[in-house]
Every structure is written in C-alpha cells, then in structure tokens.
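#onboarding

Welcome to the new folks! Below is a worked example of what a typical request in this channel looks like: someone posts a single protein sequence, and someone else replies with the predicted structure as tokens. Don't worry about understanding the tokens yet, we'll cover that in week two.

Example request:
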Amino acid sequence: MQAANQMKTFSSQTYFNRMVNASCQYNANDFFDELKRQTNNETNLNGKLEKFIDRVSYAVESALSSNEIINVFQDDFDMLGDEDAAVGAQSSTVNLRSRNYFYNKDMRVSCIKFHPTKPNFLAFSVVKNLSFNERAEIMGTSFDAHVLILDFSDSQLINLAYDLVSPVEVTSIEFHPEHEKIIMGGCINGQVITWDLTSHEHRLTGGKKAESKSEDEEEDNAQQSAITMKSLIMSQIEKSHKSYVADIVFVPGGVKVDRKSDNKGKSEHFLSCSEDGFVSIWDSRHVRKEVLKETEVKKKQQVIWLPYLTI
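Example response:
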C-alpha cells in the first residue's frame, strides 16, 4: 500500500488598478521646433558637401584624364636606365622564379618554419587537400609524404635543398634550437618524427646535378637535385597522440624538465600538443644518431621512442 498526504487546491483573484492618462495635450510648437532643427542640419550638410565637391573636383578631373592618357601596363623601371647610358645609371629588375615540384600538386601547406640561423632556408610541410569524407576513405593507408626545404640564396631561382620523406603526412615541424640540422615533425596520426640532415646513412639521393630532359628544364641544368632523406626515428604509435599534432615548441634551456638528467642549460625537451586534449613532453637527446646506434648495439633491438611525460 502507498499513502500520500491529502491535497487541496485554492485560488484567489485580486483587482489592481493602475494609473493611466485619460488624455494628452500637445503644443504645435513642439513639432515645428524639431522640424526647423532638422532642416537647419540638412542645410549645413548640403553646404559642407558643396564645398567639398568644389575643393576636390579639379583633382578628380585630373586623375580621370591621367588614367585615359597614361599606359597602366607600362613598366616604370624601363625608364630608369638605358643600355647606352653609363654603367652606374643602369638598373635591372629580378624576376624570382619558382619551380613546380610534383610533391605539392593538389596539396596544401600545413606548416612553415624558417631556419634559426640561416634565413635563406625555409622548410614547409604539405598534406593532401582532401575533404573529410575523402580523408576517411584513405585513413590507415601509408604513402610517402614530404617536407621540403627551399634555398632562397639565389636571387633569381628558388632551389630545393632537401626533401624529407615521411610515411605519414606531417602537420607541424620545428628546427632544433641547439642542433640546427635536426628537424622534429608532428604527423597527422599523432606520431612524432625526426630527421637528421647530417646523417649520410639516411640519405636516399645524394644531390647530383640534374640532367635536362625537355626544353622546360633547360633553365635548371646548373641546379643540383635535392637531397632526399628518410626519417631517423618515429615515436611509438600506441604512446603517441590520438589526433594530429597541431604544434611543436621547444622548452627554453633555463627550464629543468628532468631532474635526473641535467640539460646543462640547453634546450633539449620539446612539447607537442594535439586535438586529443593532451600535451606530451619529449626528450630529443634519446633520438640522436649517435645515441640510437649505441643503444641498438647494446640492446640488439630497435629503439622505441616514448614521450617523457604526457599531461
């Protein structure tokens, strides 16, 4: 059995009368004064507009006449120098030409970084320009992705210096502040990858002079082909991020991350952040080529790179 308290419903009604104006009286001057004020304002604006038009009308007419007379397609730099003039009076213009590489076809740039000490070197990573449905279809498949390093030292041609190959698309890159030849990268699947430009064992091509095979490539005969390199090591996917790596930042040397291993005031640890909501701290000292060789010889197995700490 179930018991409940007895319930009763009550209601009441009250009457409240509020004060309402029965009538309102206006004066005709109230309307005419506002109308006069608006008319005066319009008259003042019209007078200012007429003065402005009178002041700029001549300049506008001169500009319109110049547009009809002057050739807008004329190269102004041609008038600055002449072939028959003195050498000091000559001037030349430089057209910066870029090369179309097969790596960046139907691609979009995901990250751009300048070299910390050589401003003429620029590194950028590219990913396929796909929609969500197209990327979902190829998710889990492995294909070569590229991180390109361009050399802008030539004032007339942009040269491709390095081609860093990765089995997974790279979304973020960062130069090592202490070791300029080491590059860290964050992949689209959450892994972290490393390249060492000084490692000859990981070079796939050596940078010989390219031979011209068509008329379009004659201008690039003297240019050396890019040095293609494979990665030094990749982090273990189970301990990496669950989403793409959005950014990589090195910890300043004055900050001590690992109390057991002193960094001696050098920037050796870096942070990687991702959309999975985690920030991982990595130690770059464990993935140097000398340390990797020594570890592989001692343990006789491949080195597994894990994050030092995940927050």
